[in-house]
Amino acid sequence: MILFTADSSKDFMAKLLLSDAFDAFCLQEASAVTSVSYSISGRIHRDFYSEDELEEVTGEFIPWSEIRPKFFELIKGKNLPLSLKMTLSLKDDAMNALLQKESPEGHSSALKAFVINIRFENGAVNIITGTSYDSFVPDRSEEKIWDRAFAQFLTSKDISYSIS
Predict the structure, then answer these.
(1) Rounded to 10 degrees, what is the CA torsion of 26, 31, 33, 34?
(2) How many domains does the chain have?
(3) For the range 131-135, what are the long-range contacts, defined as Cβ-Cβ under 8 Å and sequence gap of 24 or more?
(4) Which whole-number Å values give the CA distances from 133 to 20, 48, 69, 74, 158, in the listed order?
């Protein structure tokens, strides 16, 4: 787990909300405080979809690319949000590709997700990496892989940051 602070909150938020930079992620949950408070669960309700539509729905959480425009519509305006918090998880195929590349000998079967927790408050953006397991795992090598990979991800998207 590493705490990253975006050097430019404006640049980071533009890349998060107005570009495809974070489209390799799914939204687990989000909250925003503007003139009112919004709380969003990214968990997909499968019974909302028809049988045909369900064939295209994969995963437990909605892809960020699908919810991003709607989320932006909620918070845009002449004033900045008072706060914004969200948890994004790396899509399963991207997580598996990363693990295959960085740990070809295999990984823990308890590994559930690589996540980032984003918090915008008082004009600053902080991002904390996290690794979700469904049971206790004494070896934290996957966490280290994710921490390094996320730092490389930020660099590849031209997002400057500092580590606290």
Answers:
(1) 40
(2) 1
(3) 131/1, 132/89, 133/108, 134/110, 135/110
(4) 27, 28, 30, 32, 30
* Bridge partner list, 117: 87, 128
Taking only the tens place, the pLDDT of each residue in 107-119 is 667 788 999 999 9
pLDDT for residue 51: 82
Q: How far apart are CA 128 and CA 85, in angstroms?
A: 11
Element (H, E) at 9: helix 9-18
| Type of residue at 14 | A
Structural domain range at position 49: 3-163
Show Cβ contacts of residue 73 under 8 Å, excluding neighbours closer than 6 positions.
none
Tens digits of residue pLDDT in 65-84: 999 999 999 998 888 899 99
- Give the chain's residues under pLDDT 70: 104, 106-108
Distance CA 6, CA 98 (A): 23
